UniProtKB/TrEMBL annotation:
Protein EC: 3.1.3.16
Keyword Nuclease on entry: no
GO biological process: abscisic acid-activated signaling pathway
Cofactor annotation: Mn(2+); Mg(2+)
Upper lineage: Eukaryota, Viridiplantae, Streptophyta, Embryophyta, Tracheophyta
The protein's name: protein-serine/threonine phosphatase
Segments forming domain PPM-type phosphatase: 129-383
Reaction catalysed by this enzyme: O-phospho-L-seryl-[protein] + H2O = L-seryl-[protein] + phosphate; O-phospho-L-threonyl-[protein] + H2O = L-threonyl-[protein] + phosphate
Listed InterPro entries: PP2C, PP2C_BS, PPM-type-like_dom_sf, PPM-type_phosphatase-like_dom
GO molecular function, one term: protein serine/threonine phosphatase activity
Length: 387
């Protein structure tokens, strides 16, 4: 898949510097694709292997009658009908940008052939610790990413999750998916005082931003939301407009606040630093281009688009049912309480096998049905298993 077109809701259409056609090169190290034997036909290596009775024999079957390759003529007429001019051009399926799992984690995510639906640009993952469903929008390339690290320090009650919404390309979101959670864990490991965990998370965000800006030819940026579960505590952080919503006994509680230039405190911060905020097509933007005020990357606007997250820390209890992490492709069309109401029956039933994933998919489909053209990523994390 290629990078976003200029009609992105994050970037102003007039900002042509955010558009390019460079395709993402997916490293084999971050995917685990498998093909069954039915996909492969061995080549004959000897006359015996090519015999009519050999299972390795390659046969060209006679085309159906009146097909593009043949007609109701005799068998010998098939060659006359097999020509380039008669072959229908097959439409190339949409290329898929695969969300990349972190490198060197305790329990790395592997995406196999069954999780990828190339024609529709979908990515899905089901598991006991979390479920996620991503669907590409109008852009040629999917710019959303996600990451998950479970069983931290061999403890099944420790994990960290993230959803990343790229803009101006997928490179920043991909970098954040590979590095942010690991950087946070590294900072927490060096922190002796548990009360300073919020500061450790902040350092993880700042370090990831700094590392990305040192990359060659850096372009674009990414909004981020992360959820760390450690020793029964839930630590949620965000930079940008990805959002975390908690179900507390069926009531929705937003644990993050979107970072947009329209927020009074964010606008004041930007203007006090010498920037300006105005509207384009009824959307508030920084310097006339970017519609979010915090995130990873955005080197050309780094003076105003900071990577410092806002963090909320709470103790998980029996009333905390599940957590939704999602990109703004969901939240622009679906409200917080509405999302919880839709997801709760799938998460709180007696038979929960694969149910959280169905909730993710239902939420994505609802946003699409209401006209969302953005990439949409929804991750659902059952919390009672971490108590």
């Amino acid at each position: 898949m290629s990078v976003a077109v200029c009609s992105s809701p994050v970037f102003s259409p007039s900002s042509s510097l955010f558009c390019n056609n460079k395709a993402l090169n997916i490293s084999p190290a971050h995917q685990n694709l498998t093909l069954s034997h039915s996909h492969l036909t061995p080549l004959a290596s000897s006359p015996s292997a090519a015999s009519p009775t050999s299972p390795f024999c390659l046969r060209l079957l006679k085309p159906p009658v009146n097909s593009v390759f043949g007609s109701d003529s005799g068998p010998g007429d098939c060659d006359r009908h097999l020509s380039l001019g008669s072959v229908l051009k097959r439409k190339r399926p949409t290329r898929l940008d695969i969300p990349v799992a972190p490198v060197g984690v305790t329990a790395p995510i592997s995406l196999n052939a069954e999780t990828l639906r190339e024609e529709s640009g979908e990515v899905e993952r089901e598991g006991d610790e979390f479920s996620v469903y991503c669907k590409g929008g109008k852009r040629e390339a999917m710019e959303d990413r996600f990451s998950a690290i479970t069983n931290i320090e061999r403890d099944p009650k420790q994990a960290i999750f993230g959803v990343y919404d790229g803009h101006g390309g997928s490179r920043a979101a991909e970098f954040a998916a590979k590095n942010l959670c690991n950087n946070i864990l590294g900072e927490i490991a060096s922190e002796r005082n548990e009360s300073d965990i919020e500061e450790a998370v902040k350092r993880g965000y700042l370090a990831t931003d700094s590392e990305f800006l040192k990359e060659k030819d850096v372009k674009g940026g990414s909004c981020c939301v992360t959820a760390l579960i450690k020793y029964g505590n839930l630590v949620v952080s965000n930079a940008g407009d990805c959002r975390a919503v908690l179900s507390v006994g069926g009531f929705a509680e937003a644990l993050t606040s979107d970072h947009r230039p329209s927020r009074e405190d964010e606008r004041n911060r930007i203007e006090s630093s010498g920037g300006y905020v105005d509207t384009f097509n009824s959307v508030w933007r920084i310097q006339g281009s970017l519609a979010v005020s915090r995130g990873i990357g955005d080197a050309h606007l780094k003076r105003w688009v900071i990577s410092e997250p806002e963090t909320k820390n709470l103790r998980i209890n029996s009333q905390h049912e599940f957590l939704i992490l999602a990109s703004d492709g969901l939240w622009e069309k679906v409200g917080n309480q509405e999302a919880v109401d839709i997801a709760r029956p799938f998460c709180m039933g007696t038979d929960q096998k694969h149910k959280p994933f169905l909730a993710c998919k239902k939420l994505v489909d609802l946003s699409v049905s209401r006209g969302s053209l953005d990439d949409i990523s929804v991750m659902l994390i059952p919390l009672r298993r971490f108590i």
